[in-house]
UniProtKB/TrEMBL annotation:
This is 2-C-methyl-D-erythritol 4-phosphate cytidylyltransferase. GO terms for molecular function: 2-C-methyl-D-erythritol 4-phosphate cytidylyltransferase activity. It is an enzyme of class 2 (transferase). Its EC number is 2.7.7.60. It comes from the Bacteria. Pfam families: IspD (PF01128). PANTHER family: 2-C-METHYL-D-ERYTHRITOL 4-PHOSPHATE CYTIDYLYLTRANSFERASE, CHLOROPLASTIC. SUPFAM superfamilies: Nucleotide-diphospho-sugar transferases (SSF53448). Keywords: Nucleotidyltransferase, Transferase.
Length: 217
């Protein structure tokens, strides 16, 4: 089975305050780090970039769309014809190690339609709504979700390419692709995630990633 990666780096970085995919971490940009690890586990990568931007690293280039789903579809359209498994990740997860790629790819090779890394939640989850630019708890009953039985989903995620393509044909958009595959009736499995696989969306989280960097080698 030919395995390809799609690295999403087409976002505008609204919460970060700029194009975070080109921010530096340990002497490399976040994008460079992610592509390097993806290439070590995949036969090739497609890099989805913002319109009007390019970079001089490896991989096939694709231009992102106005939504995450459109950017994924742009990346899928650029895959070679022999691809059968696709790993989708993004530049916001620069510390995901090769072990995570091996876990999710292995689960799809074993028959799952999709696989994602997950970390068990240890704190209760609260639902909030913004009132006058301040977060307020949403309701009283049901405002709290117990931590037990829930995981925090990480990247990379691996998919059977035919199943993922079918899900994108049937469903217009979703928060991420495993939700689309699940909604389309696919079997999604969870493999162990990594505590150091921080999701960089703000400058403060980049500082956290910098502090965690020595623990990932």
């Amino acid at each position: 089975m030919s395995v390809w990666g799609v690295v999403l780096a087409g976002g505008g970085g609204t919460r970060f305050g700029g194009l975070k995919q080109f921010a530096r971490l340990g002497g490399q940009s976040l994008l460079e780090r992610v592509v390097s690890v993806a290439l070590a586990s995949c036969d090739g990568v497609v890099v989805v970039l913002p319109a009007g931007h390019d970079w001089n690293g490896p991989g096939i280039r694709a231009t992102g769309g106005s939504t995450r789903a459109e950017s994924v579809r742009a990346g899928l359209a650029a895959l070679p014809g022999d691809a059968s498994i696709v790993c989708i990740t993004d530049a916001a997860h620069p510390l995901a190690g090769s072990v995570l790629y091996e876990r999710v790819i292995g689960a799809v090779r074993a028959g799952a339609d999709a696989a994602l890394p997950g970390l068990p939640l240890t704190d209760a989850v609260k639902r909030v709504q913004m009132v006058n630019d301040e977060p307020h708890l949403l309701g009283v009953a049901g405002a709290t979700t117990p931590a037990g039985g829930h995981v925090s989903a990480q990247m990379p995620m691996a998919f059977s390419l035919p199943v993922l393509l079918r899900a994108h044909r049937e469903i217009a958009d979703a928060v991420e692709d495993s939700a689309m595959v699940g909604a389309a009736g696919g079997r999604v499995v969870v493999v162990p995630g990594e505590p150091t696989n921080v999701h960089v969306t703000t400058p403060d989280e980049l500082v956290v990633a910098q502090a965690l960097l020595p623990l990932t080698h």
